[in-house]
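I would like you to help me understand the sequence and structure tokens below and explain how sequence relates to structure.
___
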Amino acid sequence: QDFKLIDEWSIEKNVMLPLLIKGYSKNISKKQAQKMLKVVNLLHKADAYPMQLSGGEQQRVAVARALAHNPQLFLCDEPTGSLDEYSSEIIWKLLRSAREELNASIIVVTHRIPTNLRMSYRHFEIEDGKVREIG
């Protein structure tokens, strides 16, 4: 998958990008990027480049970047579809944190809802062009 990381930039700078675009100072952007990289257990690789990371690590960087500016709505298309169990759990914890700490709305399209989600949610199924709520 393509996480739209900039290969020539460190992962820290990749996470800083949306903050810099929004006009935050370099110092604030760097602190927030470091905080987000710590949350996804990649702070120790802040100076690494995307091509030096595994696919799961790149995906965790992409999620950290997406959440760095504290969005109120987060749309996820199979956020853990190609990840190992460890990386999947980190992503789900991050989404739970966004929900709880930022009061963000999160919409996830997935084929696999984790058994230990520990978050209230509504489950919809799309079949033959029709949407229906499950449970």
